[in-house]
Amino acid sequence: MQKIMFLLVPLLVAGCQSTSAPSKQTKQLENYTHLVCQVKKQNVGNFSETIIFDKDYQTMTIGDETLSCTSDKYKNCVAKLETPTGYKFYTVSTYTYKYPGSGYLDMAEINNKMLVNASYAELECNRR
To answer: Which N-terminal residues, if any, form the signal peptide (predicted)?
Structure first.
């Protein structure tokens, strides 16, 4: 029994030391021009439109309206759309370190100084 232990212990120690750590994944060039987000789960409200960001998060397109992002955070867009009787406010945060990416949308619509619509939705975002 002791002979078997003397043979197994060095074998186990050598085997444990020879296992290599997983190699780090190299960063690939990001060759996309837009980020397209769609509602994955509606938590509050009824927002269902597709959101398209340019690669640098300078603009956000919802429907046929293109809005300028005013947030200074990367991958976070705060925008305001004037309507005839008020405003629509949007805050969209995206996380694209995993594929497909995810995100969150907050939207509030104010007409005649009253809140008339609000939405909070989880998004799925894909590079295109």
So the answer is: 1-21
With vertex at residue 123, the alpha carbon angle to CA 94 and CA 78, rounded to the nearest 5 degrees, is 45
Are 66 and 80 within 8 A, CB to CB?
no
Q: Are strands 59-62 and 51-54 parallel, antiparallel or unpaired?
A: antiparallel
For residue 89, being part of any structural domain is answered with: yes
**Per-residue tokens: 127:** 């590079």
Cα–Cα distance between 4 and 48 in angstroms, integer?
67
Model's pTM, two decimal places? 0.70
User: Does 58 map to a domain?
Assistant: yes
Residue 1 within any structural domain of the chain:
no
Domain presence at residue 120? yes
